[in-house]
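User: I want to check something. If I give you two sequences, will you return the structure for each one separately, not as a complex?

Assistant: Yes, each is folded on its own. Here is the first sequence with its structure:
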Amino acid sequence: MTFETLVDESRKLKIDALEDLVQILKAAIRDKRRAQIRREVTKLRADIKAGNKFKTLADLEKI
């Protein structure tokens, strides 16, 4: 299913179902962001434990 098809089909939903879909999507976004943050923190901790030092904020952003 393409994004366009998904949007078109969502427009056919009744308001209550559409609101439920929005809540489901927001929860999925939140969960994916949390998982991404967990992965980044885990990698950062491993780098620090391995003795990798970061000199600037730009160095941290490369992670």
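And separately, the second sequence with its own structure:
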Amino acid sequence: MKEQGTKSKVAEPTAKKTKTVDTTDFRQEISINGAVVQGYPLTAAQRIHLYTVYGCKREELLNIGIGFYIQYDKVNFDVLKECIYDGYQKFECMRLRFHTDENGQTLQYLVPTEDREIKVFDFSNWREEDAHEEMTRWTKIPLNRQGGPMNEIVLIRLPDYYNGIYMKVNHLTMDSQAIMHFCSYVLQLYCSKEFEGVEPPTLPKRYIDQLLVDLKYEQNSPAMMKDQAYWYEQLKQPEPTYSSFSARNRLEEFRAATNDPNLKATYIIGDLEAAIKVYDLEEEPSRRIVQFSKENHIPVAVILLMALRTVFSKFSGNNPDVVLKNAVARRGTLLETKSGGTRIHFFPLRTNIPPETTFMDALKIVYAKENELLRHANYDAIRYMGEVVEHYGIKPGMSYEPTTLTYQPVNAANLKGHNIPEMNFKSKWYSNGVAMQHIYVTVMHRPTDDGMSFNFEYEKKEVTEEELEKLYYYICRTIFKGIEDPSITVGELLDWI
């Protein structure tokens, strides 16, 4: 490791001629309880999650817990079980297992069927908040990554005739979009069996087919070399500076603690114990954001990114050069969209926007930068993190990005236009109790009313709820001032908020 603040020369990548790799090159025979199965290496997206587990040594970090409930007292749990078993069979990623050999290499493989018992838990006589607290406790229990099932599903009865599914899944096998597609598949299949005129869902794509595409990319493919060249080019920029997500300037605190006023990065991991705070934006203002997005051909994700980077600039002395981490769900093709699995990569999105820039022009700058990022988002994000550390001479675990944003446009109740009874929905994301970043922002559309929910996962001892509340307040204040007056300059907006 070089001394703090020294810069390394960026090595230019060179394209290599590569032969076409046969799929069998990736397969390794492994023995599981005497049975020989075909194992496959992990993808870059999976290695990201494994890297974080090795870093914090808390296996439950990989748990995702979700609840999806319908207010319908005639739910047939026997039919719902049949639909879940059908989903197990159709979605290969639901049948993934992992095996770590004596050399420490982790391989993934499929089991042919999934016939585990699907239990029913009756919370109908509980207080609802107690029921959700119990399912939060379930979410904190690690799954057995050495050959064990990577998901658990329980059928749930809640008060007020809400019935549905609690699901815990390991992030190595599914991301939130994959989970939503699975839940949508099961729900639509159930409705097609129970209600007249409802078409069954379309079938998902094979997970293994997409896995092989990803593994081929990593074999120094021309596409990978092109992406590497792009990210090497980003390293030629001057060193970025950490931006604050609240009035508390953690970078200045770190500079004071280390007696180094020139530091530009700080540690973003503290006490790992975490919780989730949710702020629900009402349906009408949520609709205004979506309408502005459609009318101006600016994705909602870009509006959210613009709001975040503006607030971070405000909390950092109106610094125009802001970097945050963007979570990219790489699902641009039908195979990527319909094959399940985990496809999230995390890359820094850096924009330098002068104060005289209008809100609309700033949106276009963010949009162009995100499009650049998306075109090169297949590159190994962990590898790039290491290249950033090496190039700028910072220590592992330090970062310039105050938070990560995930935007989820998919919801599990996407059945509009189908002939099903009118019914109310509830959905819930449950905390696994662990976080590897001070704050992580996930924005999604509620299945209940199409309003937007802002989910803040945060380290409880590092971030206060007051900081979260103010961050949410300033995000909304920025968005609505900007969409009401797109000609306002960034400088005027910073002064106003």
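Because they were folded independently, the notes below concern the second chain alone. The first strand starts at residue 28 and ends at 32. Confidence is low (pLDDT under 50) at residues 1-24.
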